[in-house]
Amino acid sequence: MFVWQSATNEQRINCLSRPAVKMGVKVKAAVEAIIDNVARNGDDALLGYAEQFDARVNPRIRVTRSELVESEFALTSELKSAIDQAYSNIKKFHQLQLPQSKQIETQPGVICELRYQAIEAVGLYVPGGSAPLPSSVLMQGVCAQLSGAKTIVLATPVKGDSQINPAILYAAKLCGVTDVIECGGAGAIAAMALGTSSVPKVNKIFGPGNSFVTMAKQLLSQSVPGLAIDMPAGPSEVLVIADSGANPEFIAADLLSQAEHGEDSQVILLASDRELILDTEAAIERQLSVLSRADIAKAALKNSTLVLVENIAQAFEISAQYGPEHLILQIRDAERYLPLVKNAGSVFVGDYTPESAGDYASGTNHVLPTYGYSKTYSSLNLMDFYKAYTVQTITKEGLRGLSTAILPLAQAEGLDAHANAVKVRLENNND
Ligand SMILES: NC(=O)c1ccc[n+]([C@@H]2O[C@H](COP(=O)([O-])OP(=O)(O)OC[C@H]3O[C@@H](n4cnc5c(N)ncnc54)[C@H](O)[C@@H]3O)[C@@H](O)[C@H]2O)c1
Ligand SMILES: N[C@H](CO)Cc1c[nH]c[nH+]1
Ligand SMILES: [Zn+2]
């Protein structure tokens, strides 16, 4: 147990530091080499990485159309309807976000509009190194589909001699994905950013992934002209704020649900009650013993801390400083505390709102900023698949009215040609 009140500043900073950030320099060098190889050797580089990193036997790049169409027959009816239910809820929540153009006459004869256009070609990365994630297909695919993107490329790694997971293919089919690519990591991101013989080049790359994926997105968005990315969405994180009324079994389950994602996941509990922390420690031990991914969760717990805070208000201050991907509030009267939430990708309110609900099926998006980027980035939403642009239409009289602002400003800036573009029109008597 970490006691916030008696810790030094340095100990507090350490307690909130993220494991993935510590390995940044090594990851950058590896990713730069991968991008360079894909730029030079295209598909051949991708096939090589599939063998090297995913132990792929007879690697290939493209999944066929008929595999997509037939994927549902490989699913149990239970899993198929689970995917359908999640798809429907995610679609409902994201349909709410459809952008609407707006216009206003700012002064007589001067009309300004804000319009939206879907990004034409999008690349969706679905992590698959440690677990296949059909839910991540839905989170990104529903948005791409609702936006009307023309090209929707989905890349995911496949391990060893296994087949690509049919649940991933079925979710991709539901979302209207146009190209499914069997490659992972930085290579897959580079392929979608640069294009290869088999992989269409896209305008924007989305999706979570490990440190290699996240680094590749960041590096390529700085070097490929016009390429955009959604956000740095790396190793999963959850921060739980709990009061003395919380259930330690629920807290332990929530912490373990994210610890099991990867060894570099981080889970933090901020609790105002010492007994609750001790009970949660015991619950974690009990629950861990029957988890199939206990080893991964145990490793992640080494980067994680159960913290005793003075009071709930202090917990919110610490959480704002950390900026978690997910924030779970297991406190009485939790809604009352929502105004204290400052930086969090997605907030789960009350004892019966586990993160798993948002991870899979409630309707909210699970692609969220990590590494503290919830301080500045939004959670993935439909707007990320659009660009907004403006349109203006001005009548001659409108321009005359506006000239009293344009001409003095152009003069003040010493830009005569700007002023002339107005004057020639106002002096024109040919219409
Ligand atoms: N933030 C979010 O919204 C969100 C959502 C889902 C999952 N996640 C996170 O995504 C991550 C998924 O990671 P993952 O590893 O399971 O899958 P992944 O698909 O992101 O990464 C697997 C790929 O990493 C590459 N790789 C592996 N070892 C490498 C090495 N030594 N050098 C270079 N490249 C290497 C390989 O190409 C491999 O195919 C987890 O950390 C999980 O927590 C985040
Ligand atoms: N918790 C992950 C985001 O950090 C999303 C996910 C996918 N499947 C299960 N969980
Ligand atoms: Zn999860």
Automatic annotation (TrEMBL):
Cofactor section: Zn(2+)
Pathway: Amino-acid biosynthesis; L-histidine biosynthesis; L-histidine from 5-phospho-alpha-D-ribose 1-diphosphate: step 9/9
Binding site for Zn(2+): 258, 261, 359, 418
InterPro entries: Ald_DH/histidinol_DH (IPR016161), Histidinol_DH_CS (IPR001692), Histidinol_DH_monofunct (IPR022695), Hstdl_DH (IPR012131)
Record bears the keyword Oxidoreductase: yes
GO molecular function annotation: histidinol dehydrogenase activity; NAD binding; zinc ion binding
Family under the similarity heading: Belongs to the histidinol dehydrogenase family.
Protein name: Histidinol dehydrogenase
Organism: Pseudoalteromonas piscicida
Gene name in the database record: hisD
